[in-house]
């Protein structure tokens, strides 16, 4: 779970952090752009959690296991195999079969990005960072390619990697 410490204030949870930063630093670019942006971000958060996260989890499961130290690897395997009801390797086998459905599920995003640069319009809002975070997690957790470079979603992701002095690219890809 993400946590920030800002002076005496400690804030946990990505959405709560974004709300805090937007209120505490009104001189910085807005993360929501008002109440409508907050409502949109909640929708995007749920869509991401229900559409992107499950597929990334299953597609990267063996790679995520390999990132664990010895002690955590035992717990990781046991808990995930119990959750999925099968061996990690058997879960990941289905990722190729599910890739087309995953890519099709991104069509609303793809369609919107066909006529605007970011989910937030001309510049990113927190809704962009929500989806970016899920895809960045996939990028650093597994070398498995989720998107073709010609896909407008992949091009949007590249723009997000370049934001803030290319900070997203400074995290090594798997």
Question: Mind explaining what this structure looks like?
Answer:
64% of the residues lie in helices and 5% in strands. It has eight helices and two strands; from the N terminus they run ββαααααααα. It has 174 residues and is mainly alpha-helical. It has helices at residues 14-24, 35-66, 70-84, 88-92, 95-105, 107-113, 126-141, 152-166, and strands at residues 3-6, 9-12. It has a two-stranded antiparallel sheet with strand order 1-2.
Helices and strands, with pairings:
Layout (H helix, E strand, L loop, with lengths): L2 E4 L2 E4 L1 H11 L10 H32 L3 H15 L3 H5 L2 H11 L1 H7 L12 H16 L10 H15 L8
Antiparallel strand pairs: 1-2
Helix pairs in contact: 2-5, 2-7
Summarize the structure.
The protein has 174 residues and is mostly helical. It has helices at 14-24, 35-66, 70-84, 88-92, 95-105, 107-113, 126-141, 152-166; strands at 3-6, 9-12.
